[in-house]
Design goal:
By secondary structure, the chain is α/β, with parallel strands linked by helices. Helix content is about 40%, strand content about 15%. It is built from five helices and five strands; from the N terminus they run βαβαβαβαβα. The two termini are about 25 Å apart.
């Protein structure tokens, strides 16, 4: 499964869960634009996210992503449900999760803070905005100087 790393690999990995194909494409392109040295991959919803994390855990517990970008509003299993599931699993709860969503609702910000997400970012309206977010995330969460 793409995005799972094997023990000993030095490559960092970012996993984005978002049902909007255009947002995944923009995020991927923006991430590449930053020059951050990491694998960037997308899944379409919370079920695919949890399946991906389970598969990685089975293959190699050290092969988990270094950062998860999570949209709140997705079909099948939304980001709120996935966040709670990840943070309640002792093998996954250490994973840093950044909420990257269109929501600006105070109740969502309160919920994700209490549920254990590290940050809440509103999706940008421009490609340059996406690049700035990816640069910032790379510097803060992947220890890169892009």
């Amino acid at each position: 499964m793409k995005g799972c790393l094997m023990a000993g690999e030095l490559q960092k990995a970012v996993l984005m869960a978002d049902d909007d194909e255009e947002d995944c494409l923009l995020a991927t392109e923006a991430f590449l634009e930053t020059g951050v040295k990491a694998v960037f991959s997308c899944v379409r919803d919370g079920i695919e996210l949890m399946d991906h994390l389970s598969e990685c855990m089975l293959r190699d517990p050290k092969g988990q992503p270094d950062l998860i970008l999570l949209d709140l509003n997705m079909p099948r299993k939304d980001g709120r449900e996935a966040l709670v599931e990840i943070k309640s699993n002792p093998a996954l709860q250490h994973l840093p999760i950044i909420i990257l969503t269109t929501s600006k609702q105070e109740k969502d910000i309160d919920f994700i803070t209490k549920a254990g997400a590290k940050s809440f970012i509103t999706k940008p309206a421009t490609f340059d905005g996406w690049v700035e977010i990816m640069k910032s995330l790379g510097k803060e969460w992947l220890n890169t100087q892009a």
